[in-house]
Design brief:
Blueprint (H helix, E strand, L loop, with lengths): L12 H11 L8 E3 L1 H8 L4 E6 L9 H12 L8 E4 L3 H13 L3 E6 L4 H9 L3 E5 L2 H13 L3 E2 L6 H17 L5 E5 L4 H13 L4 E7 L4 H8 L22 H10 L2 E5 L1 H15 L5 H11 L10 E6 L6 H9 L8
Parallel strand pairs: 2-10, 3-4, 3-6, 4-5, 7-8, 7-10, 8-9
Antiparallel strand pairs: 1-2
Helix pairs in contact: 1-7, 3-4, 3-7, 4-5, 7-8, 8-10, 11-12
């Protein structure tokens, strides 16, 4: 783990448990399935492997937890104008879904070329979608909407987002009492901070392992620098894991609480997507398969004899887009 200069203020377990109660009427307790029979032999005797299937959450990803917790905590007159956000895909669907649940309008700012399936899913839920030419202008548009009175729900940053995501970790601990390792993909860091806040406070012996695309290793660069940084260019098939910058709250928790962070290639993500489709009949987007890619390749030797939960966290990809991603480059073969 890496030291950070700012004080680390994790949300309390009592705050996370209160969020579980608050969100329970609106979200699913997603399945955790033991896949040891299919994948355990690849890691060696005595290894247990399980998937936390957050791709089966309403909206197709874990993002609903943080977005809804943020919206419910804003509450009252502060959300009367409606909800807005900037999103490459999954978070936009989540905010649109939150707005529909709460009877509010929603505006989602996307960057041109964003995941078409996610854009359609946000529109189906009644959100108005606005298109920006790049990430910087997208966040500028989001700021203008906030200035006009819309409640901005950040894609990954802040205590309410972390607390919402932390409810996933509480479920994992209940579903897999023998867990000693969790593997998660990092985009902005919202899910990783949630697992850190829940699993690490429940048992600090649990290892938290994280992966980033090598073409969008923003958190790795930030940890190396000892502060949040921006990258001039990111390039990866996992659009949901490709923010150009990190922010202080999520950076602070990730830098202090991750036991190891590695990068993975697009080929490794394609390989994990193929494993999920061929062996488990799961059609998963690249970012949703990233944690499995980490388990199958860079973390492989580390998992032998351990009890590991792998986050499978996003399924918002159309079949044709899946085919296009798989055809666009090589896929690693693991098994």
């Amino acid at each position: 783990m890496t030291s950070v200069t700012a004080p680390l203020l994790l949300p309390t377990l009592s705050a996370i448990r209160a969020a579980q109660d608050r969100l329970a009427p609106y979200i699913l307790r997603t399945p955790l399935i033991d896949v040891t029979d299919l994948l355990g032999p690849y890691f060696g005797a005595g290894t247990r492997i399980a998937f936390k299937l957050e791709l089966m959450q309403h909206t197709g990803s874990f993002k609903l937890r943080g977005a809804l917790n943020s919206a419910l905590n804003a509450g009252g007159a502060s959300v009367e104008r409606g909800l807005c956000t900037v999103s490459s895909g999954n978070h936009g669907i989540a905010v649109a879904h939150c707005a529909k649940l709460l009877g509010l309008p929603a505006k989602i700012v996307i960057v041109r070329g964003a995941n078409a399936a996610c854009v359609d899913a946000a529109r189906v839920r009644g959100a108005k979608v606005e298109v920006a030419e790049d990430v910087a202008s997208a966040f500028e548009m989001g700021e203008r909407l906030a200035d006009e009175g819309w409640t901005f729900i950040h894609p990954w940053e802040g205590e309410n987002t972390t607390i919402g995501a932390a409810t996933t970790g509480m479920e994992i601990a209940e579903q897999m009492p023998d867990i000693d390792t969790a593997i998660v993909a990092i985009g902005g860091g919202g899910l990783c901070t949630g697992l850190a806040a829940s699993l690490k406070q429940l048992d600090d012996r649990i290892e938290l392992l994280a992966v980033e695309p090598e073409g969008a290793a923003t958190m790795a660069a930030s940890i190396a620098a000892g502060m949040p940084v921006s990258l001039a260019k990111v390039e990866t098939i996992a659009g949901c894991l490709a923010p150009h910058f990190t922010l202080p709250y999520s950076f602070g928790i990730c830098a202090a609480m991750i036991d190891e962070l590695v990068t993975i290639t697009d080929a490794e993500m394609r390989g994990a997507m193929a494993v999920l489709l061929e062996r488990f009949k799961l059609l998963v987007e690249p970012g949703g398969a990233a944690a499995l890619a980490g388990a199958l390749c860079p973390f492989h030797d580390r998992l032998a004899g351990r009890s590991t939960c792998i986050m499978i966290c996003g399924a918002n990809i159309a079949p044709q887009e899946f085919d296009n991603v798989m055809a666009a480059g090589p896929a690693a073969r693991f098994i």
